[in-house]
Amino acid sequence: MNRLLILLVTVSFSVNADWQQPDLSHNLTVIKKVIPATDFELQDMDEEKIKLSDYRGKVVLLNFWATWCPPCIREMPSMERLHQQVNAEDFKVIAVNQMETADDVFAFTGQLEVDPTFEILFDSDSSVSRDYAVRGLPTTYLIDKKGNIRYRAVGGREFDHAAVIKTIKQLIEE
């Protein structure tokens, strides 16, 4: 009996070690009804206060995430690549961390291959995520230049996918 249990555990670990995570999606859900993005003010990594309305006139990718969230971790590099590819005059990536300290996030970003250059803000009491009806992480909203939520994504995404970039550029051209 013990040998069978050891064999099952060994096979289980071998199978899980070889298991590949599925690719991240690039699909965004269109928001058909006009929903104004709620303005907020949060601190960034340098303890500066940032308002969403500071970026009015730009398309904003607003991402809610946490360091303990596997799909959040997986999509982070694609958000950085997107941030580097799309013109900063017209576009902004904002990642809103949920209920973690700046030290936790700083330690996490130090482990990434490339340090994020986009805005990381702290929603220490989750009040902003409640305002945006975030039910799971990651949740991302694409906000147009007028400040309206146009697209939503729940779950990890490859944000530098050509289809996502095309959508962002269309919003920039509006």
Can you offer a commentary on this structure?
Helix 3 (102-110) links the parallel strand 5 and strand 6 (119-123). The protein is an alpha+beta fold and 174 residues long. 34% of the residues lie in helices and 27% in strands. The protein has helices at 2-18, 70-85, 102-110, 127-131, 162-173, and strands at residues 29-36, 41-44, 49-51, 59-65, 91-98, 119-123, 139-143, 148-154. It has one domain (23-173): 3-Layer(aba) Sandwich (Glutaredoxin). The chain starts with a helix and ends with a helix.
In short:
The chain has helices at residues 2-18, 70-85, 102-110, 127-131, 162-173, and strands spanning 29-36, 41-44, 49-51, 59-65, 91-98, 119-123, 139-143, 148-154.
Strand content: 25-35%
Q: Which stretches are low in confidence, meaning pLDDT under 50 for 5 or more residues running?
A: 1-19
The structural class is alpha+beta
| The CATH H-level homologous superfamily | Glutaredoxin
State the helical fraction. Answer: 25-40%
- Main sheet makeup: 8 strands, mixed
**In which order are the strands of the major sheet placed?**
1-8-7-4-5-6-2-3
Please give the CATH class.
Answer: Alpha Beta
What is the CA-CA span between the terminal residues? 68 Å
Average pLDDT taken over every residue: 89
Question: Which radius of gyration do the C-alpha atoms yield?
Answer: 18 Å
Into how many domains do the coordinates divide? Answer: 1
CATH architecture: 3-Layer(aba) Sandwich
Named CATH topology: Glutaredoxin
- What sort of overall outline do the alpha carbons produce when their principal axes are compared? globular
Give the ordered list of helices and strands: HEEEEHEHEHEEH
